[in-house]
Amino acid sequence: MQDVRGKFMSEGDFEDVRPFIKNKKSKKEVDESTDAYDAIDWLVKNIPDNNGHVGVFGISYPGFYATMAAASNHPALKAVSPQAPVTDWFIGDDFHHNGVFFLDDAFTFYRGFGRPRPTPTTNWVNMPPLGSNDNYHFFLNNGTFAEIKQKYLGDTIKFWNDVAANPDYNSFWKDRNARNAINNLKPASMVVGGLFDAEDCWGAWNLYRAIEKNNPGKYNVIVDGPWWHGGWARSKGNRIGNISFDGNQSEHYYKNFELPFFEFYLRGKGDLSSLAEANIFTSGDNKWHRFDTWPPANTQNKKLYLHQNGKLSFDKPTTSTSFDSYISDPMKPVPYTQDVHFGRTREYMTDDQRFASRRPDVLVYQTEILTEDLTVTGPILAQLSTSISTTDVDYVVKVIDVFPDDFKYPDKQMQDVTTQMGGYQMLVRGEIMRARYRNSFETPEAMVPNQITNVNFELPDVAHTFKKGHRIMVQIQSTWFPLCDRNPQQFINPYTCTSKDLVKSTINIYNNSVNSSAIVLPVLSK
Hints:
The chain is α+β, with helices and mostly antiparallel strands. The chain is built from 11 helices and 21 strands. It has helices at 32-46, 61-72, 103-113, 135-142, 145-153, 158-165, 171-174, 201-214, 231-234, 249-267, 354-357; strands at residues 54-59, 77-83, 96-97, 100-101, 188-194, 220-225, 239-240, 243-244, 278-282, 287-291, 299-306, 312-313, 323-328, 363-366, 374-388, 394-402, 425-434, 453-466, 471-477, 505-510, 518-524. It is globular. The two termini are 44 Å apart.
């Protein structure tokens, strides 16, 4: 256990996701890897009777520090496990997804964590209550990023100042990409993630990929299971909200993955036969699978096309002019959940989406009833053919498992929800994309009003089986509030605009033979 530089009783100044320094020229150049190196060095020289082998793991923000420890390449460091690791705060983790600011999480976390530390302390900062139990109405009534910052944060929260000063994917964000540090790693690595992690789902999948690519031949595996953020350490892993995973999957994780990994590399005991290259739990059929690669080699990308009248099919549309429309109104944004609460829930990652499917500003498409199981393993690609009436907009794409109308859990532990599961629309994966970044995160481009444009983006990896008798549904909308900050729907700076700048936009999604929209699913072959 180690404090980070500049927090609590630790010396120095804190810096958010402190950049890794390549080719350090002197000992005065410090980052999290040099601090980890010094800590490891002290431990092996001062702790009595140690065997000279060190392991590191961390969950969430400490997952970033675990990555930096790996980059230290201290000779005593044998095994590292970044778990739900912060990896890239602009592209997919925590506070931005595809350049879209995640308002609720950032405000809740940084309102306290981001306060300057006047003196070393052992206590968390206790913030006064905000007088609201409804985050939807709180953020709606308090306005835009700039207005909320002025009312509640001022200039005291450095992170919010940095967000406002760096709206695009520039050197500030690129320097904080943890993948910059993972070349030529010496320790073995095991990356761990949760399929339904609301904070760092993207980080686990993509840190594993980067380690694999940049360290050929080095031991590196991934474990991804049915957990919320760090759920393997904080829950049984048997359920999230209304969704059951059939048993204590966290116990399975420790017994078969984490313990064998550290026992082998730190104590020279046992073997790694219980660990495959990719150790993946598929929700839906609730089974663990062992794959030689991720995504699995026998995965085939298949296009699921949007059709008129809310149809979804692997067959391409044959009509020549079909499209669907909705009006996105930032003053009446689509909520991310039907629940009323203040802090963002972890359960929204599997929530029932029927509340959203009933709104006029949400497009809904679904397949016929599946006649056989369909397992999806890997990243999903959204390919939208679209036009809008303004110069910018966000697109939210949700992939959903629709349960049969007569579905009931056989599990007695789930009887508290079984009466509401018939027709349940389980969110399997959702993601947001800002249209201005459709071609480049570094160089945003305005949309041309009423011009048909392709907007393609990736949803984080999934591992899910759509069971026979279920349907696959896709929902498309342009607000996801207050999970995500509202786009002004104009090509202006979203971090300096006011509520007066928020305008309505008419969005068209084309689903015809000439301009077709599709969701590309990585389907696992039998």
